[in-house]
Queue: 3 jobs
Job 1
Amino acid sequence: MKIDTKIGSKVKSFTRDYSIVLALIVLMIAITMADSRFLRVSNLMNILLQTSTVAIVALGQALLLITGQLDLSLGQNVCLSGFISAYFMEMLELGPWLSLVIGILVAMLVGLINGLLTTIIGIPPFITTLGMQLVCQGCAKLITSTKTIAPLDKSIKVIGRGFVFDTIPVSVVLMIVLYALMAFMMKRTRMGRYYYEIGGNPEAAYFAGINVKLYRILAFVIAGFFAGVSACVLISRLDSANIANGTGYEFEAMIGAVLGGVSQSGGKGKIFAAMFGVMFSVALFNGMTLLNVNPFVQDVFKGGILLFAMGVDAIRTKQAV
Amino acid sequence: MNDIAIQLEHITKTFPGVKALDDVSIQIQRGTVHALVGENGAGKSTLIKILSGIYQPDAGDIYINGKKKKFKVPVEAQRAGISVVHQEFKLSETLTVTENIFLGNLIYTKAKLVNWKEMRKRAEKMISDLQVELDPDTIVQTLSVAKKQIVEICKSISREASIIIMDEPSATLTERELEVLFGIVRTLRDSGYTIIYISHRMDEIFGLADNISVLRDGCHVATMPVAEVTRDKLITLMVGRELENEFIKHNCSISDEVILEAKKVSRAGVLQDIDLQLRKGEVLGIAGLVGAGRTELARALLGIDKIDSGEVLYKGQPVKWNFRTAIKNGLGLVPEDRKRFGLSLQSTVKNNITLTAIDKVLEWGLLNLRKEYKYAEWYVEKLRVVTPSVETKVMNLSGGNQQKVVIAKWLMADSEIMILDEPTRGVDVGAKRELYGIIKDLIEQGKTVIVISSEMPELLSICDRIVVMSRGRLVGEFAHGEGTQEKILSLCV
Ligand SMILES: Nc1ncnc2c1ncn2[C@@H]1O[C@H](COP(=O)(O)OP(=O)(O)OP(=O)(O)O)[C@@H](O)[C@H]1O
Ligand SMILES: [Mg+2]
């Protein structure tokens, strides 16, 4: 009754887990055929830079999706924590690096509050983080009465605009390092395993003696951390903290994660696939802009893609049961 | 041949890595109870799913009442008169019995309005035809599992099914409720229905079936009238080898040390003044009807539910623990509802088995995946879980094999006290015996075991002591050899 399908199943599971990479290649070929400017080094660099900030946020979103939750406040959290860092740096003239750390801590605090509200109080993550989205936005506006803080301290320039070996952007390296760490964490540590199992069946995880609530709260805090890091990269790249920073990141991160195959129903998904998912959507919209597609149409597309990816995932999970 | 209701010809079905059904040809006579038996993973459920249009066969034909049929979706099977009483009920909890019976199949008045009067009348008649007691106006939520099953059966009848398939209908019932179910099945058969009945319980098969078909590893081994086969022969046909006597009684030395004790434990509405002493090295059975508070007692001992009064002592010390600290202190629970509490269906066999005791495969704080794999394989082999590999998702395993995975999970945790809540539900005869053997091993290693079970013969043979629960109270206690099925049952009521 047993058939040895080890190698076959490995190939199969790779193509299933990383089908997004194939899709990305096909997309790039298609856009290039329509407009060869797409392949210019400057354009590709642009795509990579844009990918890096969203993809770092997507790490947190992917983790939350894997545990069966989500965070809609991540984008505004990026905005708020960026403002906090900029404020400490420029208005209070604290050390620039210390200011960045404070920004990240605030982002983690926001995550912690999200986690406590959903896990301990029991408000559904969707509602909690929707509310938190507004709270973050309001706080950011309060701090500066919507004025942009710019320019920022020169020393933090390296994060968003620096290069390693004069070729690879520091932020891209940072993104890849964070993804590698996270992927390793998910595959090789107890915590990572717990996250998959909590997402797969929280009740069974509880009955296996896992502190489900604690891990869920921690997931929000980790997502907050990544939002904070993304904010550092973003304000450094733009050399300013702006009220529009991070807008829509939570959705783009979700599109990326779900396109990459992270299931909205929890328990499934490969970390690196989320990065390629983000890259896919960034490349797609970059291509559309190159081809002069109306930006409003692009918005429709963005929403459409999210729904499409969610739909495919929903159908896939439904059949499996 | 007019009396053949179902004829299956050369049915084959393959899943990735598994041939679930291999050239199966079976004839089922109209107006009979036809039992389908076989080990876990033999292909019974798959065959049923093909018959009811959930799966399509890779090859082979289905004839219903002599006509060739191809079911692409479940509705087509329903139209051909085939109805399945699923083990997981598909009822709307907040509606009444009548509403559930006719849901999706409403009766209308001439004015095209829903005709509740007529439906209620028919529901009443259906219920009285089955000779059971059930008020058609009760909300389904409040019904016992057994009653819900009756609603499911009525639903099938109202759809004008002529063939009713029951996949392990008895797994969640207690002895008394079983009698009712048997009554219904016989009534149905006598009024001309054809019934396909899947079960792992020998008593049932011999008490109920007219004919038996045996599946083994996806192959049809034999079909015969029940009168032509003995119990032992049937088991041999199922497992393909001879088994020693059905139950193993271990004789062990129980120490005087009380390892776990409940003192006047109460919990509003479910438990009342429970006094219980568990001695190290014993196998304690808890008998009782569904709803008697057996699972609740286990939950209270493990700190899953808070108790209102009384105390729990572990090794002489009063404990106020939650479930996690209980586990850390060496208690373990194989829960009753495996799909809900025991397993993550979309995870692999390996990840499920190692979850509770994942610390065993940690090295320098990291998971040693190779070691983990070996652990999982070892348990899969020990419990004979039928699976293509340990990387297979649990949802692709047959019901009984899923149950084995839950047991493996807790064996790996190596608990001092193991509480098994209905551990043999849905498990085949061979595996049951393996489980009894495992309990014996545990005892020999100095562990202590509590078994909650609705299968009386099982408790009577493997337990050193049986306590009986009824309505949240302990109502009796028997040492091994003292109890009988009748004595225990009379206490249950
Ligand atoms: N959807 C599926 N995908 C892959 N394999 C499957 C699937 N469904 C069943 N199988 C495999 O087919 C075989 C037969 O399974 P089936 O559920 O029919 O067994 P069964 O006789 O009902 O067993 P049990 O008594 O444990 O319920 C098993 O080895 C099982 O792992
Ligand atoms: Mg089955």
Job 2
Amino acid sequence: MDIIVAKDVRKKFKLKHGQQVKNNGIISNEIDALGGFDLNIKKGEFLVLVGPSGSGKSVFLDIVGGLSAPTSGVVYLDNKPVDAPSEKTGYVFQQYALFPWRTALSNIEFGLESRGVVKEERIKIARELLSLFGLSDFEDRYPYQLSGGMQQRVAIARALATKPEVLLMDEPFAALDAQTREILQNELIRIWEGTDTTVIFVTHSIDEAVFLADRVAVVTARPGKIKEIIEIDLPRPRNGDIRSSSEFAANRHKVWGALKAEVNKAQQEWKLAPGFTD
Amino acid sequence: MNISKRTKSVLGSILLPVVLIILWQYIFSAGYIASAILPSPHQVIKTFIIHFTENEYSFHIISSLKRVLSGFFIGIVSGFLFGLFIGLSRTAEKIFSPSFNAVRQISIIGWIPLIVMWFGVNEFPRIIIIAAAAFYPIALNTFAGVRNVPREYVELASVYGYNRLKLITRIILPSALPSIATGITLALGMSWAMLMAAELFIPTNIGIGTRIQIGREKFNMALILVGIITVGSLGFAMTSIVEIIAHAADRGRILRKEI
Ligand SMILES: Nc1ncnc2c1ncn2[C@@H]1O[C@H](COP(=O)(O)OP(=O)(O)OP(=O)(O)O)[C@@H](O)[C@H]1O
Ligand SMILES: [Mg+2]
């Protein structure tokens, strides 16, 4: 059963007066971010989007999350067109930092406060999540007292607190160092494997994509659409050891094969842009 | 460690006054200056003691304190509400902000004659001008704090279905708190500055400012200095208290100095 269905989603942005862009060689004052995005996501699936920078991945996530409307086409969530943020959706976006005036515990409670969950229940849920991420001793800490990795765990916990059916994650680990990043990937996959949450996860790291995903969807250079979907045939439950297996390398190879051409194409476009010096 | 740090900072802050007093005493003892121009520290301390023990100086201090606090509270409450209002509503900002910014350019002291003509020479206009002095900084800082709430905070709240009231109380106000606290501290300083104007330009028999005035009339330089030092110390003490409260209210979260 498909929980999310994107049908021919297109998105154009009007540029500011005087700005222009080349779409397939034609100069225009509108930028084509998405050009016919079709994607079906199964319930409980972990889907990873990879694609060159500027290919519209974040724009697509915004549309799925009801934060922005498509210019044409439609995204269905549980068979209903998305036109506003839904209670069924959780958000882990880079720009959504923790609230600096709230403790770790209280940050996790945030999403529950507007949904009429009573205080004791909120605290219970938040504590469970903190312990799941190994942060029980840090519940009374403010964000500035936590490391980057801890902050990101709390941000994920905040999104999970509302028990979303769909979790949208836009490069959640991009700002972390390589080691912390692997640890968080391991934790995320462990926690996710114990739920039936559907995840759409955007990353630039092929290793991350292969390690986490059931399927990796490769997005073309702008205007973004799905180029190819690669099934990751690694067994679950997965743990960190799998990264060094030959199956992992084979999957990695497949994803890179699909992605390479698009990354080159996107780079080519920048090189053609006026003012670009290599 | 902690204590020695605090002791250090206290020592640091009294260093300059102590040096100045020593210098002052030295200039006086060396006979460079006549006591009618500048009395000696010794004279000032004597006057201080006499007035505190015999001349109801504390009554004047308390009256001035009441005056400044009344104005200050009226100013910060109304200024906060005004700043919040024009901060939350773009329409309100368009309507009120230009006039507010124009009026703000006029020194409050310039309004005194008009206010006295309306309300007469009594306590009310004194409190009004002190309140006006406190109003500006708190209004401006509340406005800035509300406007500078990161867009992402508001977006995240709306994504999770926060209604307008909850958005204000749980996101906007906490986020604007450091700026509001700065406004309150500035407002207190402005209130103390305006207290002198209120007491000197709207004549009264009661208050530290009037003691200074009497010192001038009697050519009692020491009495003038006692007044000035009293106002300075009280203003400093109150500003420190407000800063400590603001810091505590923030629970070390945003005003924190580490970041
Ligand atoms: N609000 C906007 N106004 C104009 N153009 C926009 C806007 N938002 C996105 N774009 C454009 O749409 C295209 C896709 O942007 P998007 O942020 O989705 O890329 P992305 O795939 O997430 O890139 P990255 O991997 O670098 O995060 C880009 O060319 C971007 O410049
Ligand atoms: Mg992006």
Job 3
Amino acid sequence: MKIGVDGNEVHLSTGGRTHEAGRPFVMFLHGSGFDRHSWPLQSRALAYDGYNVIAADMPGHGLSAGAPLAGIETQAEWALKLLDALGAPQAVLVGHSQGGLIALEMAKKAPQRVRAIVFIGSAAAIPVNPQLIEQAENDRFAAYANMVDWAYGPDAHMHENTWPGASHIHYALQVMSMSDPLALSTDLKSCAAYSGGEEAARGLKCPVMCILASQDKMTPAKAGKALAGLIADCEMHVIAGSGHTLPTERPREVNALLRAFLSRLDAQAAA
Amino acid sequence: MADFYKLETLALHAGHVPDSEHGSRAVPIHQTTSYVFKDARQAAALYNMEEGGHLYSRISNPTVAVLEQRLAAMEGGAACVATASGMAALHCVTTMLVSAGDHIVSTAQLYGANINLLKNTMPRFGVETSFVHGRDLDGLKAAIQPNTKFLFCEMIGNPGLDVLDVEAVAKIAREAGIPIVMDATFCTPCLFKPLDHGVNVVIHSVTKWMGGHGTTIGGAIIDGGNFHWGQKDADGNDKWPTLAAPHYALDGIIFWEEFGPIALSQRIRAEAMYNFGPSMSPFAAFQLLQGIETLPLRMERHMENTARMLDFLTGHEAVSWVRHPSLPDHPDHETANRLLPKGAGSVIAFGIKGGREAGAAFIENVNVASHLANVGDAKTLVIHPASTTHSHISAEDMKAGGLSDDMIRLSVGLENFEDLAADFSRALKIARKVAGDRS
Ligand SMILES: Cc1ncc(COP(=O)(O)O)c(C=O)c1O
């Protein structure tokens, strides 16, 4: 569906199901240079579980209009406005990589809007190799290839896939190619510049789950464990053998963890 | 520098990681129609395309999926759907992209059944195709109409062996905002990767070089993921409503919105595989995978023997003409050199002095080469297209496709070349005698 935020059209997937009043919201936040196509195997599953799913393309990504937003803080403000536009008082945030930083910042700015957070392949800080940023600015297709190379684990490099017939590598390259030419470099610079993660993590009061990958070369599991260590109410899981792109590389494990976490939240809310 | 596995490695490994329980190194044959659901919710989820997996082998199968993922990997495609034959692949792509009232532009230099599907079958369903010579770039451009939904072509036309300047054609298609669907059977990804040159969807008859052993019919559709299916027509309607408008099932899913780069392949699975059912069997997929493992090696040898065969035939006293894109007198020689530096395929067309009878004498007297209706086998194959593969094609279309009555189509195999040359020498001698008797 499409909806306006700050005068720009935002494109989002609701997982194939229209939002219904009274259902809990789950907002998916994609990583650098990606878009809503990070979440095909979570968005439909949770929508049909009964959640109001929001898997949006950030401005300048995928099919969303406007220039890519610079700065994690600005991106977090935008995501909160998207919640307003959709009439979502509160949501569980599921952030992959850079999306995790955005979730941290959303919780800092508006803790009452954040019911819980799931960090996937994320950390409190995501330093970026300056050469990669330069490449994203000057030769974006080469940068996409490098990102995709590092973002996927050994099985994905062998084109093993739970989705019959699909190639992680070539799917991801096409997803990245669809966005504004400045989307990736803007995202990488936003990650590199963001320094508020530790403080935001220490301040988190909501329930949190961290899902990490043992073969993650982009945000190593070590950095994810450090993030988990800063958070009061946090459960942590490391998925062996997966690369950084857990939602599509290991959808079964990720969805099982998501479902268990969401059920516990719902049970607590009911109690 | 990004470091992805290269073609030879992908041909052996892509799509398959040994399972943790048995560790089978070869790809297991999942000879089953169906798969036990874990619970009711998972059953619903599989039907609803919420998660990956298999529910019924008409739609997908684990062994077939390995083949699909291997071909996607080798072609650089976002996804692949395997089909029961190469013709099923073209049929599925065509019917998922067009509806009654739509139009296709195609190059005229095509395999006979490809021509027939577009020229004779599709019009009965209200879909017209304009055929234009692949070298007539202005003509191709002029043939595109507001209702044209794709441009179809073969990289190396069967059996005329015209090579398409696909980069020039891709520019025309891009400017017109329509996708290119290419049958790249004669190249295989070892010689040419169409998606790197502006093509959007690749189809293969994997029956041919891919399988390579003449045992198994199969086809494949590789979805490049590099086309924007959300474009509107001049009236503001979806130009490809099968992909950009709600589906009749799955709660009105919009494939382009949910699946983006793999929208077309998912529509093919959800509609063509569901409703037509031209699926590949797991055993066929296994056989084809065995072939693909050695494809890069075989293609090298195919090309080596082809070069030697061209030397042998050129200037042979019983041969009136030889056509192959690598020969300087071929009209697409320059295009072939530019786009196909690894070789322009292992099919050669040649004429035998003395016309039809001499041609028949040659074909009936080869021993090592086999007279049959296939190309791309490890074994050398010969046929007379005018009386066989293209006998359903009108004289006019034959001419447009670059075919003549005296033409022999030769698919060069992997035999010891001395043995092949001796076989051909002997059969050509007999053909020459027949030609002499006639004159
Ligand atoms: C170029 C080309 N395309 C398609 C086909 C059809 O393939 P199949 O026989 O696998 O249906 C053939 C078969 O001869 C072919 O040569």
